[in-house]
Every structure is written in structure tokens, then in C-alpha cells.
Amino acid sequence: MTLNLSPAAQDALMRDVFREAKRRAEMKRMASGGFEFRNANQIAQTNHDRELILAGPAGTGKSLANLNYINRQMWKYPRLRVLCVRKVRADLAESILVTYERDILGYDNPICGSQKRQSRDVYTYPNGSVMVIGGMDRPGRFLSSEWDIIYAPECQQLDLDEWEMLVQRKARDGKYPYPQIRGDVNPDRPDHWIIQRC
User: Fold this and answer.
1) Global pTM?
2) With contact defined as beta carbons under 8 Å apart, do 157 and 87 qualify?
3) Best label site of 86, 114, 137, 143, fewest CB within 10 Å?
4) CA–CA dist 3, 50 (Å, integer)
């Protein structure tokens, strides 16, 4: 079948084709990442240990590596349940959530929606996966639930009892093959419980 289109119609059709290709490429990028990680951050992209903590100085990509892994898992496994938690919930708004929206999702991503980070309590993916946002200052909302992945940025702020409480909230239903708690830390002292636990 041959289509006889005017030059204007051909141009419009080509614009639509390129727009759709760009949309599909963006969806693929969101689902797969698109970052090049090195060293421990690279290992963290395929690591399925029950507990994983990335340690190192500020600005080395630990949080980005953890968020990239989580985002990929959320796209890959429909209805995945992720908890992102810090000692104080308010500390997430201008730290990890900025990285998540700016570098992982993109500000114009519909997953971000119009809700402000300060009051956001969940990110919902089209496939039903969710990332719930919480703080140990108000843990009642999430400690009665099980989670496939728990992510604790700046986990040096947590005490050992809080970390172990989170470990107990990992899902045990077997729907997700790699239940895991992840964290990242800027080491602050050699006798910290994190170093002892490692």
C-alpha cells in the first residue's frame, strides 16, 4: 500500500514518529537507568544481599546508585513495595527526594505529579509499584507493614535498634525474590554500629 501525502502531511507524520520514538526511549531510560557507575556503586546495581550499605564521602554517588537500583526494580516488578525512611521524615524533602525527582525520574515525570516534596508520602508507578516516604520520628504508618525493599539514606543517623526494626519489616511472602534493606552513609566514627555490623 502506498500513501500519497502532501509534504506538510509527511512532515507532520515524521514529527509524530520522532515524538513517539523519543517517548519510548525516555520510558526505556527511566526503566533501565542510564548512569555509568563504578566500584561499589556498580556492584550495588546487581547486589541482592539482604543488607547493603554503601559508605564513602559525600558526592560519590551512593544515593544515586541506590535510587537507580530501586527505580529499576520498581519498573521490573509490578506492585513492588519500597519504603524510603530517614531518622526524621522532613530531612528527606530537600535531600534524597530532590535526587530522586531530578536525576532518576525527571521533574516532568507524571510519577512526580504536582504534590510538593514536603508533603509527599508516596510515589506510585503505572505498574502499581510504590515508594512510600517515612521517618522514624513517626514510624506508626509503616512499621506495621512489610516491604520488598527498604532504603535508609544517611543511615548513620539511625541507631542499631531502629535498623534492626527495619530489617524485621522486610517482606517474607516471596513475591519479590530479593527482599533487601539498603542504606548509604558518610562514615563518622570507627566505633559506629554500622562498622561493627559489617
Assistant:
1) 0.80
2) yes
3) 114
4) 57
